[in-house]
Amino acid sequence: MTVKNETDNLPTVEDYQKLIEELRVHLNVLNASVFLLEEEMAPDSTQIHNYMSKINNELEVIRKMIAATPKVTFQKN
Amino acid sequence: MNYHDFSLLIIEDEDLVRDSYVDMFEILGFQIDVAENGQVGLQKIAQKEYDIVITDLNMPVMDGLETLRRIKKKNPSIEVIVITGFATIENAINAMKEGAFDYITKPISLEHARIVLTRCVQHINEVNENEALRNLNARLQHVNKLKDKFITITNHELRTPLAVIKGYIDLINISLENVSAETDEYLQIVNNTLGEMIDLVERMHNLSQAENATERVYNETFNMVREILEVAGGMKLMFLQRGIRFSVFSTEKEIQINCDRNGFRRMIRELLQNALKFTESGGEVKLRIKKDKVRGKVYIKVEDTGVGIPVDQLDAIFEPFYEVQDVMHHSTSKTEFMGGGIGVGLSIVRDVVEAAKGEIAVESEPGLGSVFTVILPFVKDDVTV
Predict the structure, then answer these.
(1) Range of the domain at B66
(2) How many Cα atoms within 13 Å fall on the side-chain side of residue B342?
């Protein structure tokens, strides 16, 4: 016997999870491209080195924030 | 009472009696299986899901009481009804102490069986409904927790580091001399990705705002034609870049409406962004404003020659997180126009229109385009502005 789910029209946990995943994907791309940029530039100026260092600090803040987002542990009914 | 959705297992050792039970319970409409003793019954329960088991108490191989204990140990959700003679009602009472739902005395009357089974089915329904409510509650709490997390992320935490990174990337851009092709390419990717993340965060933020739209509405009277021209002017370049013809037509220079100005501007922006996103290069988008003095309404139509919306999906497009289809076939969508986005734009439009006591309609033909029409009441000329 099945019971009809009355929340089918609400945003689901999976919908939110998809958005977090989308952020994670973008963050991965950003991480990789910043890394490659840093490698490619091989900064000889202290100023650019400082900029890259600050970018990496901010990336770390975002990484921690997204990693702390609760993982979904149950399935849609 | 509908018994068709309920499966019932009858455990009875005497063939003729068992057949008579089958005939009786089939009349009520149950899906019925049979077993000749408790052991066979348990095997069947291991292979298939049953809602109710009706078992005789006195049986060879394994008696009804032992069968009941084992069923309740492994499958506590199965309801067990025991059948007993008048002389052994005490056994039936013992069975109820072991978890049986009820007992039926021999000889079984259809009416008595119907009463007991009806109560049993009602009980199962109640248990299932309670379970569904518990799941619903848990799910809503979980969704709410994630939503709160999103609001925190988008409002307070994610925007700042993204803006800081963007700032430093701009500074690097300015500071670099003789940029190699590779560096230029990586800078481009970083810029594009940052742009996408900022857009995504903005849209997530909009969703959380949209859910509270009615609480934040600040109504005022303003000239909606001017607001539309300003929003359209800002977006003109994006249409141009995309190779889409874009024009605005209005029957009047000034039409006063009373609603939330920021919400109205956002609604226009979302409608135009939607048209922009789903229209191919070489297509056309028109925004028409028409004042219907007789009805006291103003009609804002956004027409595009885009991909259109399948008829069966028209009802769903104003729901949050809905997107008609992916836009991968638009070469610039992914990077420049929030392609593959999260589908909250039109739900925001709906919320704004409802808050302004207006209506929204959509007509669409897949492959030919869509027309979104927003109908709002205008402020009559004799009303002091």
Answers:
(1) 7-132
(2) 27
% chain B with pLDDT above 90: 23
- What's the pLDDT score for residue A66? 73
Structure tokens at B50: 């049953």
For A6, which residue in chain B has the nearest alpha carbon?
B136
Give the closest-approach CA distance of A23 to chain B in angstroms.
7
- What the block records as the tokens of A18 is 């998809």
CA torsion, ordered A41, A43, A47, A51, to nearest 10 deg: 50
What is this structure's pTM?
Answer: 0.43
Task: Provide the residue type at B148 as one letter.
Answer: D
C-alpha distances in Å from residue B237, one per residue of B241, B250, B300, B331: 6, 20, 21, 17
Residues B320/B332, Cβ–Cβ less than 8 Å: no
Q: Which of A33, A37, A62 sits opposite B158 (nearest CB)?
A: A62
- Tell me, yes or no, whether B64 and B114 share the same domain: yes
Q: A20 to chain B: nearest residue by CA?
A: B150
Q: In chain B, which residue's Cα lies nearest the Cα of A73? A: B142
ipTM of the complex: 0.76
Model confidence pLDDT, tens digit, residues B202-213: 766 666 555 554
For residues B102 and B96, the answer to whether their CB atoms sit within 8 Å is yes
Q: Shortest CA distance to B64 belongs to which of B118, B108, B113, B12?
A: B12
Cα–Cα dist B104/B123, whole Å: 17
Instruction: Quote the CA–CA distance of B130 and B33 in Å, as a whole number.
Output: 28
Closest Cβ–Cβ partner in A3, A47, A70 for B175:
A47
Q: Are residues B26 and B88 in the same domain?
A: yes
**What letter represents residue B381's amino acid?**
D
Task: Provide the CATH number for the domain around residue B364.
Answer: 3.30.565.10
Tell me if chain A has a CB within 8 Å of the CB of B129.
yes
Helix, strand or coil, per DSSP, at residue B156: helix
Q: What is the pLDDT of residue B329?
A: 37
Examine residue A8 and state whether it is found in any structural domain, yes or no: no
